[in-house]
Amino acid sequence: MRRITLFLICVVCASLGKTKLGFAQASSTADIREKVIIDTDIGDDIDDAFALALALRSPELEILGVTTNFGDTEARARITDRLLGEAGHPEIPVAAGAPTPEKMKLNQRRYGEGGHFAKASHPDAVKFLLEEIRKHPGEITLIAIGPLMNVGAAIDQDPATFRQLERVVLMGGSVRRGYGNLGYEQPHGPDPEWNIINDIPAAQKLFASGVPIAMMPLDSTQLKLDEVKRAWLFSRGTPITDALTVLYHMWGQEMPTLFDPKTVAYVLDSRLCPVVPLRIRVDVKGFTREEAGTPNAEVCLDSDPEKFFRFYLRRVGE
């Protein structure tokens, strides 16, 4: 009887020990979530919404806030408000950058109108970004998926604080393959890419800032969400896939190219876009030139579309 009693005590203690260890492991996982801020021009092309959806479906990330840039930044902020609210995360702060002359029609503008989850006001994006870096020095990944107005302004205002970012993961540039080259034919060479050419001085400042950069250029981000994949994703019937369905139809085109989601996917699993160290120079025409010298960026020059979509669809559609 004594042996049985001792055995039962040992089993109970072992179980409690495992339970405590389990709690510790769960707590540890929660504590090591990567702090991110997403800087976006959501509202015209559709890939920003798909990128934000992936971030929202990823418990590995702690989204400290979303900042909007380019054109009517308040309208973009209201679109973001609603998407966050529909996805069950109305608490995530949204900050608006300084408006600029509009070059693109905000085809998703109506999504942000009507008061759905709209915040009464939006703080200044650059001020918000710098304040968050000061709170969490060396811990924040800035996911930059739009033109770099907020980035350039933050560097101008406080370069020392900006350098306390852990890294910038950038969708931008074109190194060896330009628009329309999906890797099936001989490269025709790079093109000036949208996010770079809309604020060339800001891009130049970023690459000279000394902040670690992971660059997802056109070479690796021209990922086509075909009809079969769209049908599967839009049929899931979750709040976030329903929101993507509405935004896709407002976008009004057929085949989305998921440039921006590649940045978020890379943050979650760097194996989805292997990088090489390169020296990148942004020239006066907005080309991101590869040149000799000390590397200032880790650049993804190619990726596996099937592997990416398998990851993306499982994560967002689950």
Describe this structure in words.
The chain has helices spanning about 1-30, 45-55, 75-85, 125-135, 150-155, 160, 195, 200-205, 220, 225-235, 240-250, 260-270, 305-315; strands at about 35-40, 60-70, 95, 140-145, 165-170, 215, 275-280, 290, 295-300. A nine-stranded mixed beta sheet has the order 3-2-1-4-5-6-9-7-8, with helices on both faces. It has 13 helices and nine strands. β7 and β8 form a beta hairpin. It has a single domain (about 35-315), classed as Inosine-uridine Nucleoside N-ribohydrolase, Chain A. With about 325 residues, the chain is an alpha/beta fold.
Task: Looking at this protein, list some descriptive labels.
alpha/beta; 318 residues; Inosine-uridine Nucleoside N-ribohydrolase, Chain A; 15% strand; nine-stranded mixed sheet
- The class by helix and strand makeup works out as alpha/beta
How many domains make up the 3D coordinates?
1
Give unreliable regions as ranges: 1-30
H and E string:
HEHEHEHEHHEHHEHHHHEEEH
So, CATH architecture? Alpha-Beta Complex
Distance between the termini: 51 Å
For the largest beta-sheet, the strand count, sense and barrel status come to:
9 strands, mixed
Helicity, in percent? 40-55%
Strand order of the largest sheet: 3-2-1-4-5-6-9-7-8
Beta strand %: 5-15%
- Bulk shape: globular
What fold name goes in the CATH topology slot? Inosine-uridine Nucleoside N-ribohydrolase, Chain A
The beta-strand count equals 9
Q: Can you count the helices?
A: 13
Rg from C-alpha positions? 22 Å
Average pLDDT reading: 91
Q: Identify the CATH class.
A: Alpha Beta
CATH superfamily: Ribonucleoside hydrolase-like
